[in-house]
Design a protein that fits this description.
The protein is an alpha+beta fold. The protein has 2 domains: about 100 residues, no CATH class; about 270 residues, Bira Bifunctional Protein, Domain 2 (BirA Bifunctional Protein, domain 2, 2-Layer Sandwich), CATH 3.30.930.10. The two termini are about 45 Å apart.
Length: about 475
């Protein structure tokens, strides 16, 4: 760095990424992906088993397939269209001769490269891990050889401290001691006050409260019951797989009232008198009472509905949620989510869209867009998009009207419930023009000070 500062050399720092296989990735490379092994098993047995029969069937036909791998296999094989469900049994649609997952893992293990989409999937499934190595390239200035030849500069060993060993050995005579200037003032650490992202969250809370909402809270470690089951999310829904949820290794909890357990079980199995057929399977209370890291703040909203029931009220929460995402410019495995409900009689989807337009206006957003979508617990449903100066339209959340299958077990019969969930990190990106979600937690003091200044100006322009 000293040579570079004096102009004798130039440096260029590069970060080189490499990938290697995890323990699970090595297993898949040797045995094949779970979906390929499932297809192989169905081909061997020529049968239509239930999902619960797969482990014993695999043992009978000599196919390596654990209980957890069977769940993964069903999910991925269904996405590929290789299997279908009929009457609760698995039927083979077509035989896949290739195993792209195994092929990709073999390529990576040999130091080769694969396409970005396949690599992203392997990272998301935890089959490969990314390693980064910093390389510094040093290039001499054109004047350096001449300065060396003419003796203007000479090779030497430079030290910053004189030790007793150097003095006793006499080696100090051949050294160059680095000079220090004690008169140079030390840099002053800039004080920037509160973190700008915390201030942005407080600003959002003020907006919700000004629109008549009350703040509510819920635990990070949550029951599957509140995170999924009470929201009419089937127990075999892909979002409940290990690749989309952090599971907590702990005994099941029993602190859910029996009438809620019975009501949710009835809705899942046969619709519970709501006019729906439900999911038409045997609901498992033991699974519902297992612990996870909360994957959606909607768990707080449904807890609020269970405690307050019918009536007219508005509540919101802004807090952390956790999902095993691959960290990139728009995704993180830990992020903040804003979730809320509007409860009352005579509410319509038009009221919900009007609320979001007003919320966007108070955020200083001139344009907001909605796109029809599907969520297991709302109907009708829509995705919410806001316009980012550099990145274009960004999806910031989802919204809809809670289905009767959600409300009935909670004892809500007369009120309509409008619901929404938004990614607070993405809202901050839109409001402040941040292009990378990782910058919200940047360690750079200068960047934090600059971002706080931007936020203050953005808030002042809105108010």
């Amino acid at each position: 760095m000293e040579l570079a500062a004096k102009g004798f050399i130039t440096t260029e720092k590069r970060t080189v990424a490499s990938y290697d296989l995890t323990e699970e990735g090595n297993r898949y490379m040797l045995l094949g992906s779970p979906e390929a092994r499932l297809i192989q098993l169905l081909k061997k047995c020529n049968c239509t088993p239930k999902p619960s029969d797969l482990p014993s069937l695999a043992q009978e036909f000599g196919v390596e397939l654990t209980i957890e791998e069977a769940k993964i296999a069903i999910n991925n094989a269904a996405k590929l269209g290789a299997i279908r469900f009929q009457g609760g049994t698995i039927m083979l649609n077509r035989i896949e001769e290739r195993d792209p997952v195994k092929e990709s893992l073999i390529t990576i293990s040999r130091g080769g490269s694969i396409d970005e989409k396949s690599l992203a999937q392997l990272l998301k499934r935890g089959l490969v891990r990314r390693r980064e190595q910093s390389i510094i390239l040093i290039k001499p200035d054109q004047s350096l050889p001449g300065l060396l030849r003419n003796g203007v500069i000479k090779p030497a060993r430079l030290v910053t401290s004189l030790t007793s060993e150097l003095i006793r050995s006499g080696e100090w005579r051949n050294l160059e001691l680095k000079e220090f200037d004690p008169s140079v003032p030390v840099p002053i650490l800039q004080s920037i006050g509160r973190h700008f992202y915390s201030e942005f969250i407080d600003f959002l809370k003020e907006i919700y409260e000004s629109m008549g909402f009350q703040e509510t809270y819920g635990p990070y470690i949550e029951l599957e019951f509140w995170n999924f089951d009470a929201l009419f999310q089937a127990q075999d829904h892909p979002a409940r797989e290990i690749h989309d949820t952090f599971f907590v290794s702990a005994p099941s909890q029993r602190n859910v009232p029996k009438h809620l357990i019975d009501g949710v079980a009835s809705v899942h199995e046969n619709g519970g008198g709501t006019g729906s057929m439900g999911w038409r399977y045997k609901w498992n209370a033991e699974k519902a009472l297992s612990l996870i890291l909360r994957s959606q703040a909607t768990a707080v909203s449904v807890r609020t509905l269970a405690s307050r029931g019918d009536g007219e009220y508005r509540s919101f929460t802004i807090d952390r949620v956790f999902r095993p995402e691959v960290l990139d410019a728009k995704h993180s495995m830990e992020f903040h989510q804003a979730d809320g409900i509007i409860v009352g009689r005579g509410l319509t989807f038009k009221h919900l869209l009007g609320f979001h337009e007003e919320f966007a206006r108070r955020l200083g957003m001139k344009r907001v867009m909605f796109r029809p979508s599907y969520f297991p617990f709302t109907s009708p449903s829509a995705e919410i998009y806001m316009l980012h100066d550099r990145l274009g339209w960004i999806e910031v959340g989802g919204t809809g009207i809670f289905r009767p299958e959600v409300l009935a077990p909670l004892g809500i019969r007369e009120s309509t419930v409008l619901a929404f969930g938004m990614g607070v990190d993405r809202l901050a990106m839109v409001v402040m023009g941040v292009g990378d979600i990782r910058d919200l937690l940047s360690p750079s003091i200068e960047y934090l000070a600059e971002s706080r200044s931007k936020l203050v100006k953005a808030i002042q322009s809105m108010t």
